[in-house]
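Q: Convert this sequence to structure tokens.
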Amino acid sequence: MEAVDREYRGTDATIVYTESGASAERAFVLVHGIGMGRVVFAEVAEILAGFGRVIALDLPGFGDSPKSDAADTIERTARLVARFIAETCTESVTLVGHSMGTQVVAEIALRHPELVDRLVLIAPTVNRYERAIRTQLLRLVQDTSDDGWKVLLIGLSQYLRANPT
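A:
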């Protein structure tokens, strides 16, 4: 299946997502980090599409999804994504979260274990000894120093599009 952009309209929020891969026994649901959107998972989605259906989300207020007060906390966002999964996935679900997305998928796994077969957490939290803004800026420079321009430009464009709240 070629990648197709779709919209999920919940009762109180909308999620824009890209679906790819063949319907199979497994669905991979990809949840991005703060300031990002589904576009950051494009290359990963291409690889995973060979193993099942891939659903890369734009959480409300990020990427192409409109902002919604109904998804203004991790818990409320997790409830929305859990409803999305319950209504759209019949396969075993592997939830993949990056950065802030790990908080969302962990909340889903905790509150709705029946929806989750596997959980993948990528860069889940900040080291508690390095939470100062100066240290985090240093880590950001270190993390991005060997990324290509493509990765940096995608990240910057996503941050600029994100809802500032």
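The mean pLDDT is 88.
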